[in-house]
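Lecture 7 notes: from sequence to structure.
We start with the chain below.
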Amino acid sequence: MKRFYKPVVTGLLSLCLVACKSMVDDLNVDPNNPTDAPGSLTLTGAQLANVVVQEGIASLLVSIWTGYATGHDRQWRDYYLYNVTAGVYDTEWNNVFRGTVNNSRITINKASALNNRKMTGIAKIVMVNSLATATELWGNIPYDQAAQIQEFPNPAFESQLEVYPKLIALLEEAIGELESGVGTVGAEDIHFSGDAAKWIPVAYTLKARLLVDMKQYAAAFAAAEKGIGTFANSLYAPHGTIPSVNQNQFYAFLTQSRPGDISAVGAYNVSLLNPAGATYRGNAKTDETARFRFYYQPNGVNTRGVMEPNTSSTVTAKGFFAIDAKFPLVTYQENILTLAETALRAGKGFEAALGYLNTYRNFLSKGGYIDPTYQASAPSTYQPYEARDFTAGGMENSDGIAPENALLREILQERYVTFYGTHLGWNDERRTRNEPYGIKLPPNSGGQLPWRFIYSQNEINSNRNAPSPVPGIFEPLPIYE
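Predicted structure tokens for the same chain:
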């Protein structure tokens, strides 16, 4: 975490030191623990905390439970086999509520007092991003009383069925704030430098994500139509090459903190993308070689020569988890594939859904989100599909199911391989687990797949309103039932 919070902490320290009038003024004030800061700093703090939420240990845990990677050694082998305890989640829970939500609430209050509606809107979107992830991973969470420790030392938990509509309402508020054109935001916004025209589509794509979770597919389609329309406007976490400051978090974990703990040996996603695999998803119109190499190193350096997530950071091979690789938060990829799935499920027609899928395949055929080093060095083909490819006996329907189901299966599989490294693939897998088509993961251990994270041990110990008994990882989430 130090590499993300260091710039913010440094700024806050400077703020306190400049304010001191003499060596004896405010003698009892600790300059290392500032109690106030302008909204510009707290907005940056909220965004950095949200990056940690989306990209940190939670995503690593999801990756080994969703077939993107494998727990290879030490405690990560235990986590892979579903042997986890509540204490594992303390830091991630804290990142959501003390990091993102707390800083977002402060920003909203300060910006509202100055009628800076643009800053208020951005802060609301950031807060929704973290809270949505929290309810997707844990289930019921504090919402109305969250991150207000003085007023609510024991915040009440609210059900997912209550939280989701509130998150959507907050996004709608944010959109209104941004559309007002009132207020200014600049470099304190680490993603878009205050560009409202980019933040509004992000809000709509996030709204569509929540509606997909709720299986409200027609409403999700309508939201996605207003969502992110170009790859350039995707919301990514920026990274650099300075150790312990701005590196990609997966890179730091896989190569520095715990090299060898995570591999990709036997990972389900590898079986789909590896052209040499028995269940390779490629065909006469699809060559996944470039994407496979972008994602994975067949002879990795961190796990003694076995398949592992790609952290290569050279000028000729820059992997998905390179030292300075940006990390996907809310993207064009997600939005166009949401349009494809929801068009089919909401009755927009087979041809409409196929059109959106082919739009995405055209994006991939031009390089898509695959780093140029792999586009140049490995085969990559994504020719458009035709309706006949999904009829019984067609290229994508060898088992003779209904064409609509064959298309849905392909869309869900494309979503899965595209959402590599994030928790979105787990969202989809759990949402479609009881449907006949979708990603059908084998359990890593035993006969069950996990449904949720365990609540933080610190939260259980300190909040008398925490759920009791504490639900285990195999207890289904209401939203996905």
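Points to note: The chain has one domain: 2-13+38-480. The first strand starts at residue 70 and ends at 71.
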